[in-house]
Specification:
This protein is mostly helical. The chain has a domain of about 90 residues: Four Helix Bundle (Hemerythrin (Met), subunit A). The longest helix has 23 residues. The chain is elongated. The relative contact order is 0.10.
Length: about 140
């Protein structure tokens, strides 16, 4: 699935350009631009869900179903969402170390069921989030 998601993210640049071009022609050709924007939004609505990006589906649905006067700000929001997904492609994923692979998630029981979420009680409810002197954050000045 990661390969498919990467493929989808890499293809988004072309769709971003097409959407930006259509958005800039809204004043000169409102009907044509709106038709193009809705067609692109419809395509993104389906492919976002298919490739595992529900945030794109949600933003594209809003554009596709909006009244014409509401489309410009919704297109800007859709473009912002799409660009954030493209950035995922450029940012390297952190490597998982052996300790990460073996450590249970915070607040998770070995069984994975019935464990309270962090801050909802349980043995660690009053425990600090990180130990002082942790290497994950710089020491206080």
């Amino acid at each position: 699935m990661d390969d498919l998601k990467q493929f989808f993210r890499s293809a988004l640049s072309t769709r971003i350009e097409a959407l930006e071009t259509a958005a800039t022609t809204m004043e000169a050709d409102p009907a044509g631009a709106l038709s193009t924007i809705r067609r692109l939004a419809h395509s993104l609505r389906g492919s976002g869900a298919t490739y595992g990006y529900p945030q794109i589906t949600e933003a594209a649905t809003a554009v596709e179903e909006a009244e014409p006067e509401d489309v410009p700000p919704l297109v800007r929001e859709l473009l912002k969402t799409m660009k954030a997904v493209v950035l995922e492609l450029r940012e390297p994923k952190p490597a998982r170390g052996a300790a990460d692979a073996e450590a249970p998630a915070v607040g998770a029981a070995d069984t994975g069921a019935g464990a309270p979420a962090v801050g909802e009680g349980g043995a660690d409810a009053d425990a600090p989030a990180m130990e002082q002197g942790s290497t994950d954050e710089p020491a206080p000045a």
